[in-house]
Amino acid sequence: MSDDSLLKERFNKAVKLALEMDTLPPDIMLEFYAYYKQATKGDDFSFNANQEQDLRSSFKYNAWMQLRGISPKKAQKEYIKLVEKYTNQKIS
């Protein structure tokens, strides 16, 4: 199995675990969100100005923008680290 395939598999496992987690503090949830978006969308930022721009959406967009320039692979690795940290489980 290639390194890219293994990373993608680990990332997908981490996403599943994250979805099963209990609610975390908002700042940690923003970190999860930002790394997920960077891992799946890269620097392809989008913010629909036609939608009602509430404070929550602005915070999420800002958190993602702070990761600008980080490769999707690095974002996947960081997301995995976050999940491992907050679930106390090693993802292999």
TrEMBL record:
A Gene Ontology BP annotation from the UniProt entry: fatty acid metabolic process
Highest taxon listed in the record's lineage: Bacteria
Keywords: Lipid-binding
The ACB domain, residue ranges: 7-92
Gene Ontology MF: a single term: fatty-acyl-CoA binding
Protein name: ACB domain-containing protein
